[in-house]
Amino acid sequence: MVSVEEALQIIAKNTPILQSVALPLTQTKGMVMAQDVLAPIDLPPFDQSAMDGYAINIHHEKKYTIIGEVAAGDGKEVRLKVGEAVRIFTGAMIPKTANAVVMQEKVTRLGDSIVLMDEAVTGSNIRPCGEQITKGVLALPKGTELTPPAIGFLAGMGIREVNVFDKPRVGIVITGNELVEGGEALKPGQIYEGNSKMLLAAVKGYGIETCTTYQVADNFMATCEVLTKAFLENDVVLVNGGISVGDHDYVYKALKALDVEPLFYKVRQKPGKPLFFGKRGNKIVFALPGNPAAALTCFYLYVYPAFQKIMGQLGSGLERRKLMITTSVTNTFGRALLLKARVLQNGEVEILEGQSSAMLHTYSLANALVYVPESVSEIHKGGVVEVLVFPN
């Protein structure tokens, strides 16, 4: 059995990074760049007007003669003599002899001339060529997450395709004789299967589209067959249930029979103690507890950072904050506690009712977990605790 910190270190050490793929920029949101990108052009590629107004060639008077107009997209070359101006619009190319742009609200127009309200300042309201970045300079380094502004920045330089770390294919294996699909009538001893929907939503919430679910009865040979198929078709396998040591729990035995290397089994935490992590070749597998709240806690704490690393990110997991707690907490279990909680608008955190590993009702209202280390036996009201904030 390992500690929470040891489990996280083992996962980080043994999670591979996937191969890179070249994708159209429009398909890369949330992915991570697999190589440096240098600017192919200056940005902006020409001196550009920062606003609607008048481009002028400054002279000692406030009156200027208008000789034309330049709109965004115009490629014509206009040369201004001293004391001349052109009507210009935001994003338009500045005439080479212009040395300032005066916003339209700061002039009085009199037919074919304008009169400035204030003295003109050289370089005002002009975005110089290469102001944002110059050709050949590092635009974004390897490891950058492609957020909407990053995608917009690259697209603005004419880049249409980038190399990114691929997203993993994920398989979710659900075990249990007692499980039936919603819509069917429940027979004695049966329950509706919801964990696959929960885990599928959690996986896809991280932007991973290729996710397949499998269901298997509590049978050793059937479990081996389904796991073999899941390993063949996926990069990451999540098994839910059947990982304990009961007479009808076959997952651990099946993983051993399939030559999965066990990297740890069981973590000193509550909930989620019967967690397994291992690898088979370049594939990794998490066997999560069957109880839904325990399974989701293990997903957030362990699977989430593994997804981050496998896609080329740092793999630091959930955002961690130090917040003041609204109630006291006692830990008599000798294990780390992961308590369903809610971060309040005032910046404090409250522990929610219903901490059972089988209960999702309270989890539905939670937006965080309070982490109590195994070495801490008591936290008083008003104390500062470590809070793991859920994504989104």
TrEMBL record:
Q: Fetch the InterPro entries from UniProt.
A: MoaB/Mog-like_dom_sf (IPR036425), MoaB/Mog_dom (IPR001453), MoCF_biosynth_CS (IPR008284), MoeA-like (IPR038987), MoeA_C_domain_IV (IPR005111), MoeA_C_domain_IV_sf (IPR036688), MoeA_linker/N (IPR005110), MoeA_linker/N_sf (IPR036135)
Q: Which domain of life is it from?
A: Bacteria
Which pathway is recorded for this entry? Cofactor biosynthesis; molybdopterin biosynthesis
Pfam families per the record?
A: MoCF_biosynth, MoeA_C, MoeA_N
| Key word Nucleus present | no
The cofactors required by this protein are: Mg(2+)
Show the SUPFAM superfamilies listed in the entry.
MoeA C-terminal domain-like, MoeA N-terminal region -like, Molybdenum cofactor biosynthesis proteins
Please verify whether the record's keywords include Magnesium.
yes
Q: What is its EC number?
A: 2.10.1.1
Q: Where is the MoaB/Mog domain?
A: 171-309
Which keywords does UniProt give here? Answer: Magnesium, Metal-binding, Molybdenum, Molybdenum cofactor biosynthesis, Transferase
- Function in brief: Catalyzes the insertion of molybdate into adenylated molybdopterin with the concomitant release of AMP.
UniProt similarity note: Belongs to the MoeA family.
The identity of this protein, by name, is: Molybdopterin molybdenumtransferase
Classification from the root reads: Bacteria, Pseudomonadati, Bacteroidota, Flavobacteriia, Flavobacteriales
